């Protein structure tokens, strides 16, 4: 196997995608949607001033001691929060289930990385673009979850700020890397074919030996 620029870019995209897939609560900083409260709000057990939704669970920060409380729920979980007006809002399983597409994209990127380090550049290029498409689907699901949460938080009667988490922006980086890598792999495939064709072309010599052959006996 030989490392090329395209293969290195794909490997980098796979690493970033894996970090996104690990997500909160395992890596709290790589959440998908986060909400900051500037008033009273109650999470699962206590008053909170922030919560973060990941792929495999959620994290929330307690107002009392500032500690983070993370819960691993597994795929497709439900999260609820109560505002100062007593109104409760819930994020259902149907909104968090689709986040598993990040794991699907990571699996494709790992396969693409293995193929890219071989001579099958054109296959790796199409796999790279396919991984980018799956990543785009994940981003769309992530953004839909963000819009859902933002809409619900406005009914709590509490001043808040809802934003997409770093996992979304990291996925955007993966998307860009996969499309760039795909084009580079196609270029490398074309160059390798040109080099192979040139090296296999035999040198042709004139059959009559040229002008000096007239003087040979």
What's the helix and strand layout?
Elements: H1 5-26, E1 33-37, E2 41-42, E3 48-53, E4 57-62, E5 68-72, E6 79-83, E7 88-91, H2 93-96, H3 101-116, H4 121-153, E8 160-164, H5 166-200
Antiparallel strand pairs: 1-3, 1-8, 2-6, 3-4, 4-5, 6-7
How would you sum up this structure in a few lines?
The protein has five helices and eight strands, in the order H-E-E-E-E-E-E-E-H-H-H-E-H. By secondary structure, it is α+β, with helices and mostly antiparallel strands. The longest helix is centred in the C-terminal third of the chain and has 35 residues, at 166-200.
Structure description:
- This protein has 217 residues and is of the alpha+beta class.
- Helix content is 51%, strand content 18%.
- It is built from five helices and eight strands.
- The chain has helices spanning 5-26, 93-96, 101-116, 121-153, 166-200; strands spanning 33-37, 41-42, 48-53, 57-62, 68-72, 79-83, 88-91, 160-164.
- It has a five-stranded antiparallel beta sheet with strand order 5-4-3-1-8, with helices on both faces. A three-stranded antiparallel beta sheet has the order 2-6-7.
- Strand 6 (79-83) and strand 7 (88-91) form a beta hairpin.
- Helix 1 (5-26) runs antiparallel to helix 3, helix 1 (5-26) runs antiparallel to helix 5 and helix 3 runs antiparallel to helix 4 (121-153).
- The longest helix is centred in the last third of the chain and has 35 residues, at 166-200.
